[in-house]
Write a sequence for this structure.
């Protein structure tokens, strides 16, 4: 059987090209992210240039809490105003439950801390299930791989001051 050189080259290169196309980067996993956020060694941070930002790009937004477990006000309401004058709210309970009110719809469920101690996961929530704890605020994040400086006012729930008696 006599094959031409171009045909033979194609046969040899095609599987490699297809294999490269099928490989999709998935980003870092939650454990790697938590290790990096919890202060991976300085040499690694300097070598890779990867360091988790400590707060939002917008200086008017609250800074990420140094210790989310201490900064979180459990059983308190955090609210976010809507353009129509209503407000959404998020309450994180001491008993491991949460109540989320968005667009007049109430969802309840359980939550758990992520390994970095700065974020928690709202179980059963599909859209923005990760909550980053800031000083006097909570930020809703799409997933565990979102950098801490990728927060915006429309995803910011601020601690509601107690009502005057």
């Amino acid at each position: 059987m006599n094959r031409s050189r171009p045909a033979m080259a194609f046969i040899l290169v095609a599987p490699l090209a297809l294999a490269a196309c099928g490989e999709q980067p998935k980003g870092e996993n939650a454990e790697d992210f938590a290790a990096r956020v919890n202060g991976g060694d300085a040499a690694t941070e300097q070598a890779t240039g990867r360091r988790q930002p400590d707060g939002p790009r917008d200086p008017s937004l609250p800074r990420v809490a140094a210790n989310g477990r201490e900064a979180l006000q459990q059983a308190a309401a955090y609210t976010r105003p809507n353009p129509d004058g209503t407000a959404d709210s998020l309450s994180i309970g001491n008993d491991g439950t949460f109540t989320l009110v968005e667009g007049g719809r109430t969802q309840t469920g359980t939550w758990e801390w992520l390994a970095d101690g700065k974020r928690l996961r709202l179980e059963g929530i599909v859209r923005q299930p990760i909550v980053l704890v800031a000083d006097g605020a909570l930020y809703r994040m799409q997933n565990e791989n979102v950098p801490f400086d990728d927060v915006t006012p429309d995803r910011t729930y601020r601690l509601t001051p107690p009502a005057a008696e």
User: Anything to note?
Assistant: DSSP finds four helices and eight strands in the chain. The two ends are 94 Å apart (CA to CA). The longest helix spans residues 5-22.
